[in-house]
Structure formats: C-alpha cells, structure tokens
C-alpha cells in the first residue's frame, strides 16, 4: 500500500512540475556539449572556478529566471587541471561547496545520482526564508566537464524536476551520450539533443 501511495504522489509531483514548465525552452550549447530545459533564454557569463586541489579552471555559467525562481547551469571545464583527483572528486567538491553556501538551511536530500549513467550527486536544502535550493551535478569523465544544475525556488513552487531531469550531455555531433551499466561503453540508439 505504501509503495502504491508513493507512486501516486511521485506522479502528482512530476505532473505538477511538467504543467509548471509548459512554456519553457529547450536550450542547447554545442560548444559546451549539453541540452537543458530553461524557463527563459539564459544570461551567459565566462567565469573561473577553483578546483578542490586549488587550480583555477574555466567555466561558463548560464542563468535563467522566472518570477522569484533562479535556475543556473554551470559547465566547469577540468581539461586544464593537471590533478586527476580533481576529476574523480568533482561531484563531491561541488556538493561540499553547495552545502557550505547554504549552511543556514536544512539538508533534506543528499545522495548519489546519475544522468544517462554519468555519475553525479543531488542535494535539496530547505532555507529558513522558505525557499528551496536544489542542485544536481554530473561529471563526464571522458570529456573532463562537470555540469552543475542549481535551482532556488519559492517554498510553494513544485520541485524543479522538469529542469533537473532535462539535462543531456552531448557528443561532438550533438547526440545524447548514454552509457551502459559499465559506465565506459556507449549505449546504442543515441538521439539528438532534446529528443529524449
């Protein structure tokens, strides 16, 4: 009975999120190799990011807003870091930075996650002002890029599932990368960005 109730509640949350995101746009950056759903055309800025081992690497930050909600995608390019452990620990490092940036909040979810079998991490932190902070990162080891999705939404808003689950990491031809269970070999049947 509990499993059935959980399934019904999960479906309701996803449907509410999908209805909330009906007029969003599909955004693709073939240079940074990703596709994501956003509520509006993002403001894009080049920034530098300090890795866990203290190296400064280039990154791009994409910020999109709707009302009081802010959605960001940060693509961190680890190709210039000479430290291999920067790559291996990248998801844990950005999760640590997110926790530190939101110390006043209560962590309600903090766990391993993946998108298309690309290893990552998810967080949800409820803030004292009623807002909710969500983050999801995935580290594409073969391309040495970390994708960090962050959303801050009012407490009354549905979770930003339509944003978080929309991330697709792309190859040089703009096709979605999905790995087999071994995390190394590519799955067959890859689709163009936005094609699911």
Descriptive notes:
The chain is an alpha+beta fold and 196 residues long. The protein has one domain: Protein Transport Mog1p, Chain A, CATH 3.40.1000. The chain is 20% helix and 39% strand. The strands form 2 sheets. Strands 3-4-5-9-8-7-6 form a 7-stranded antiparallel β-sheet, covered by helices on one side. Strands 1-2-10 form a 3-stranded antiparallel β-sheet. The longest helix is centred in the first third of the chain and has 19 residues, at 2-20. The protein is globular, with a radius of gyration of 17 Å. The relative contact order is 0.17.
Keywords for this entry:
7-stranded antiparallel sheet; globular; alpha+beta; 3-stranded antiparallel sheet; Protein Transport Mog1p, Chain A; 196 residues; 4 helices
What are the SSEs and their pairings?
Layout: H1 2-20, E1 25-29, E2 34-38, E3 43-50, E4 56-66, E5 69-77, H2 84-88, H3 90-101, E6 106-115, E7 118-126, E8 132-140, E9 145-153, H4 161-164, E10 168-169
Antiparallel strand pairs: 1-2, 2-10, 3-4, 4-5, 5-9, 6-7, 7-8, 8-9
* Number of structural units classed as domains: 1
Number of DSSP-assigned strands:
10
Q: Kindly report the CATH topology.
A: Protein Transport Mog1p, Chain A
| The level-1 CATH class | Alpha Beta
> Which stretches of 5+ consecutive residues score pLDDT under 50?
5-10, 12-20
Q: Estimate the strand proportion.
A: 35-45%
Report the span from N to C terminus.
Answer: 32 Å
CATH homologous superfamily (4th level) name: Mog1/PsbP, alpha/beta/alpha sandwich
In a few lines, what is going on in this structure?
The chain is of the alpha+beta class.
């Amino acid at each position: 009975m509990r499993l059935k109730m959980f399934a019904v509640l999960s479906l309701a949350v996803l449907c509410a999120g999908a209805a909330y995101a009906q007029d969003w746009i599909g955004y693709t950056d073939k240079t940074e190799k990703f596709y994501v759903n956003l509520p509006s055309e993002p403001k894009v800025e080049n920034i530098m990011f300090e890795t866990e081992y203290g190296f400064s690497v280039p990154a791009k930050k994409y910020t999109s807003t709707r009302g009081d909600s802010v959605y960001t995608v940060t693509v961190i390019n680890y190709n210039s870091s000479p430290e291999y452990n920067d790559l291996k620990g990248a998801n844990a490092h950005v999760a640590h930075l997110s926790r530190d940036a939101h110390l006043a909040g209560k962590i309600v979810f903090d766990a391993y996650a993946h998108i298309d079998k690309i290893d990552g991490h998810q967080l949800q932190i409820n803030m004292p002002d009623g807002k909710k902070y969500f983050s999801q990162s995935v580290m594409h080891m073969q391309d040495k890029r970390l994708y960090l999705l962050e959303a801050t939404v009012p407490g009354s808003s549905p979770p930003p599932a339509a944003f978080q689950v929309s991330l697709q990491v792309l190859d040089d031809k703009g096709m979605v990368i999905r790995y087999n269970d071994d995390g190394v070999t590519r799955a067959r049947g890859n689709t163009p960005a936005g094609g699911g």
